[in-house]
Amino acid sequence: MNRSADPQPEALVPDQDLDITTYEDVDATTHEDVDATTHEDVDATTHEDVDATTHEDVDATMRAARVISAIVAESVAQAGDQVTMPQLRTLVLIATREGINTSAVAAALDIHPSNASRLTERLVQAGLVARTPDTDDRRTVVLSLTTSGSDLVAAVMDYRRTRFRAVLSALEPAARRQLRLSLDAFSEAADEPPEKPRADPLLLLDPEGHHDRL
């Protein structure tokens, strides 16, 4: 009886050929394509989006700054010719930063210490600022507002509050809350201290809070 020939095993592909196909071809396809997509395309998309966002954010801030600057300029006009803009800024710094001295004024306004010294001297001569020795370091002089200086700053700030309140009243409550949070974050990033709480005149008469009996 003729026995059928056993089937011949299929020829094996040499390992070398598999390695060539697997590593070289796949590497060429995968790494080159991925690199092209990841680094070039993603970088282009990411940087363009970030730049676009940055410009839009800055433009929006500049737009709001124009409104704020106009109100600030109007408030300075309310002070008449008593003070200049740098002098008013100095008064506000002294009002909001307890224990401030001339060096701190120079740093905050980014001016030379000698210019800050002349600036504060004019305010002292105008009766708006007082100089007193620091209780912790007698060699350091601390700046504070006189009664006239406090009244001037209060009048300017009251005008600003009235004008800002008029603009904010046109916004929905949710929008005002979001704006407040954003402005707080912006101010903190710029290292601007928060507004001091406004004292209630009745509480000054009755610190225990029993003014309803007055």
Can you walk me through this structure?
Helices cover 66% and strands 5% of the residues. The model is unreliable at 12-21 and 199-214 (pLDDT under 50). It is mainly α and 214 residues long. The protein has helices at 15-78, 85-96, 102-109, 113-125, 147-168, 173-189, 201-205, and strands at 129-133, 141-145. It has a two-stranded antiparallel sheet with strand order 1-2. The protein contains 7 helices and 2 strands; from the N terminus they run ααααββααα.
Largest sheet: 2 strands, antiparallel
Order of helices and strands: HHHHEEHHH
Radius of gyration: 35 Å
Low-confidence stretches: 12-21, 199-214
Find the count of extended strands (DSSP E, 2+ residues). 2
How many alpha or pi helices?
7
Residues in helices, as a percent range: 55-70%
Q: How much strand content do the residues show?
A: under 5%
Summary, kept brief:
The protein is mainly α and 214 residues long. Helix content is 66%, strand content 5%.
Descriptive terms for the model:
214 residues, mainly alpha, two-stranded antiparallel sheet, 5% strand, globular
SSE inventory with pairings:
Elements: H1 15-78, H2 85-96, H3 102-109, H4 113-125, E1 129-133, E2 141-145, H5 147-168, H6 173-189, H7 201-205
